[in-house]
Amino acid sequence: MKDKHIIKVGISSAAIAHSPDLLRTTGLGSCVGVVLYDEANERAGLAHILLPDSSLAKSEPIHIFKYADSSIPWLIDRLTAAGANRNALKAKIAGGAQMFPSFSGSDTIRIGERNIEAVSHLLKKAAITVTGSDVGGVTGRTIEFNPQTQQLRIRKINEPVIYI
């Protein structure tokens, strides 16, 4: 039996895993962690999305994992290439906190909310059901996904660990 490894996904990064490996990302403040998974094939992908839309890019070429509109299609393509069933993909999302609540009126500062909206819209457009989410609030998160159990472990400072 293969040993379990933790695949760490940094900010503006993404990775694919197969059971028994786990996917983990830390530092989800206003960023959103998107997990796509195929339960039957025990494959999953995780993207740590920084911004909602690549049209915000100031230079070419864009860094695809930085944006929701480019990283989600990448995850779908790579998971399918790795043996996942495109029609069986489901999603779990976490993050999108309002890290500066006193500035919540500014659209520029509402990045967490805008990230959540973009991710939700893109997943709906791709016909991928969101089976669990822990989004918003004012606290950052660390998440870890297990492709074998399909559980997303969510840890926040000074709060109990939750699983979705």
Task: Describe the protein in words.
It is a single chain. With 164 residues, this protein is α+β, with helices and mostly antiparallel strands. It has one domain: 60s Ribosomal Protein L30, Chain: A, CATH 3.30.1330. The chain contains two helices and ten strands; from the N terminus they run βββββαβαββββ. It has helices at 68-81, 111-125; strands spanning 6-8, 14-18, 22-28, 32-38, 43-49, 90-95, 129-135, 141-146, 151-155, 162-163. The two termini are 26 Å apart.
Question: Could you list some keywords that capture this structure?
Answer:
alpha+beta; 60s Ribosomal Protein L30, Chain: A; five-stranded mixed β-sheet
Structural class: alpha+beta
Termini separation (Å)? 26 Å
CATH topology descriptor: 60s Ribosomal Protein L30, Chain: A
Indicate the CATH architecture: 2-Layer Sandwich
Order of helices and strands: EEEEEHEHEEEE
Q: Could you state the oligomeric state of the chains shown? A: single chain
- Estimated helix fraction: 10-25%
- CATH hierarchy, class: Alpha Beta
Number of domains: 1
Whole-number mean pLDDT:
92
Describe the strand arrangement of the main beta sheet, using strand numbers. Answer: 1-3-8-9-10
State the helix count.
2
Q: List low-confidence stretches.
A: none
- Rg over C-alpha atoms, rounded to the nearest angstrom: 15 Å
Instruction: Count all strands and give the number.
Output: 10
The gross shape turns out to be globular
